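Intended use. Records such as the CoA pyrophosphatase entry shown here are meant for training and evaluating sequence-to-structure methods. They are not intended to support clinical decisions.
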Amino acid sequence: MIRPVFEPESLPIESTGARLPLVAAERLTPPGLRARFEQSLPWDPEPQEAALYDVRDPRRAAVLVPLAMRASGVTVLLTQRADHLSNHAGQVSFPGGSLEPADPTPIAAALREAHEEVNLDPARVEVLGALPDYLTGTGFRVTPVVGLVHEPFSLAADALEVAEIFEVPLSFLMDPAHHQVRVLRWAGGERRFFAMPYSGADASGIRAPHFIWGATAGMLRNFYRFLLA
């Protein structure tokens, strides 16, 4: 199937999760997150975009979902990918990439990639666990590794891969009212995907809009489902 070229921000909003339940506030704290990953509770991940494109033999990849423990609350560290990259150029992403032969596990790959892309010291990351693998329409099987990031830590973007590093409150991303379902209709069919537009202020107080969508938003939606269980 031919993949259409489109601007996700311009597509119509089909629905939001405004009527869905909220995650309990204590679940969004470091102790609550640790406790949830120690539990084994049944929950259902969202349908994945790869089913639309019949992706076969996907490449293994891993991302780190870095949860920074700030004084004001837990935030999610995200990156805006450089425009020249061959995959997901210009999109909002978690630090991550393909597994390499030297990576013994997806956790090792996620920590290595985060260090390479944003200079996050693996020693500052307390790995909590992983969410189910996410199959992307671009041919990757991604393992989302979730970890708490302990202060103090410093970040620096690898200019070859990362255009910007920013943070979004976990409470914002786990509020289903901010989860949009957008739809693309074209001659070959339909595609629906999650989007979570965010326009919070950056470190200097300037409003900085970011359009979180696709696989990143899909993994965040699965994180919501996981925490809700």
